[in-house]
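Please, structure for the following, as tokens.
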Amino acid sequence: MSILPFDDRDGVIWYNGELLPWRDAKLHVLSHGLHYASCVFEGERSYAGRIFKMEEHHDRLLNSGKILGFNVPYSRAEIDAAAMAVLEANGISDGYVRPVAWRGSEMMAVSAQQTKIHVAVAAWQWPAYFSPEARMKGIRMDFGEWKRPSPETAPCHSKAAGLYMICTMSKHAAEAKGYADALMLDYRGLIAEATGANVFLVQDGKIHTPTPDCFLDGITRRTVIDLAKRRGYEVIERAIKPEELAKTQEVFLTGTAVEVTPVAEIGDYKFEAGEITRNLMNDYDALVRKHAAASAA
């Protein structure tokens, strides 16, 4: 299957305050963000031309920059407007939106006090992260070899580009063995998250999810917890050991890209896409469509 490269497409990208032709939205090879990972980003979904939880995503983008020691030079309102302008200019209804901020090329060393902060927003069509069949039946996951680091060793509450290096390595290793994704443990050997999504376990009718103390407390994660509580499900945030998968009936992932996706296997453990998972899948799908309809009204 031919994949259209991301640097050679029609359309426009918002770049430092203006809409540029897609192919002209470039940065120099000696950008600090490329060499030293001084870069933060967001992943957002548009439904019927409206971005779900847009304000929360852009607040997090600004905060991620502050955690890395720089101020994004645009307000949340300006980034909100930029994202909507990109969707409209590219004619995208259901798609994926990627705001990104990074240090430029004024300095090329560990210290980067004088670098300019650049900001861009792109958007593209992206209807599903996993195939529809896999999303309904449940994906197969392996255990990742790499672990989420201690909060004393990495800015784990920033959506920082550098933190995803071990996610890519873990996902590639899983895919090489025929799995769709990898479950990552944390530095203590506890269940943490997938390579780009939070994880939930259903045990005897109760929903359990790891405490996000060394990884992102996802916006979709919080949304799904709220949906679960509205249904009367008990949601317990706690430390979860991997051996607890043996007494788990359902597992699902949450994230902007994956939405709510059931898990059928993690290593030798097997699960069903049961009632709780399917209810939350349906509730989330209904919520994002309701939000789009209300925003358009």
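DSSP finds seven helices and 16 strands in the chain. The helical segments are 32-36, 54-67, 76-90, 132-137, 165-176, 219-230, 275-296.
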